[in-house]
């Protein structure tokens, strides 16, 4: 084409945004400060794939930085805005959430206008990891690693029904909050630590 002095135009790919709205990216406010001095000061949230059932399931979870307690979880067949909204609403139930900082990655479910508006209306301050940096949300990465290793891989679970996967997740979260001791929590389990410290 060059020899005939013809230049081709390269089409730029249009970015697709959730519901057509441009994403709202929150600052990296926590800057890897993973500890909290009181409950409902810092929350972490994320979604992971569960590839152990008949179909892929998505586990959305929130953790309180104060005692590493799982304060909400939702298992779904879709990774969408509804999943993120259900998780944060469940976490808010019965808790004082004004000025809690909620940290997530820059996934489209968290940068969605609806999610950002809802958290703002309820006094929640959002924080986000830097793009492509999973270590900024190490609290969630650590929990998901423990869950998959202890509840699935060590039990040699590869393919079971989706109902069984959901049951395993429920049982593991109860075990994690109410039985599994953590060195960082003075060798107590999360609920026990909260009860002793608050």
UniProtKB/TrEMBL annotation:
GO terms for biological process: DNA integration. It comes from the Bacteria. GO terms for molecular function: nucleic acid binding. Transmembrane segments: none annotated. This is Integrase core domain protein. The lineage of its organism: Bacteria, Bacillati, Bacillota, Bacilli, Bacillales. PROSITE patterns: INTEGRASE. Residues 35-198 form the Integrase catalytic domain. Involved in the transposition of the insertion sequence. InterPro entries: Integrase_cat-core (IPR001584), RNaseH-like_sf (IPR012337), RNaseH_sf (IPR036397), Transpos_IS3 (IPR048020), Transposase_IS3/IS150/IS904 (IPR050900).
């Amino acid at each position: 084409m060059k020899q005939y002095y013809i230049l081709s135009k390269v089409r730029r790919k249009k970015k697709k945004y959730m519901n057509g709205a441009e994403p709202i990216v929150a600052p990296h406010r926590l800057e890897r400060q993973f500890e909290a001095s009181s409950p409902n000061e810092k929350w972490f949230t994320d979604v992971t794939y569960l590839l152990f059932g008949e179909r892929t399931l998505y586990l959305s979870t929130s953790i309180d930085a104060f005692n590493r307690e799982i304060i909400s979880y939702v298992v779904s067949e879709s990774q969408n805005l509804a999943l993120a909204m259900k998780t944060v609403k469940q976490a808010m139930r019965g808790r004082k959430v004004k000025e809690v900082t909620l940290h997530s990655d820059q996934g489209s479910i968290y940068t969605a206008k609806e999610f950002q508006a809802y958290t703002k209306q309820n006094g929640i301050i959002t924080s986000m990891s830097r793009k492509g940096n999973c270590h900024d949300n190490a609290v969630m990465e650590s929990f998901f690693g423990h869950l998959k290793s202890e509840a699935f891989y060590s039990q040699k679970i590869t393919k079971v029904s989706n109902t069984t996967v959901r049951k395993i997740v429920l049982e593991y979260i109860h075990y994690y909050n109410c039985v599994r001791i953590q060195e960082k929590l003075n060798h107590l389990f999360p609920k026990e630590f909260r009860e002793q410290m608050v």
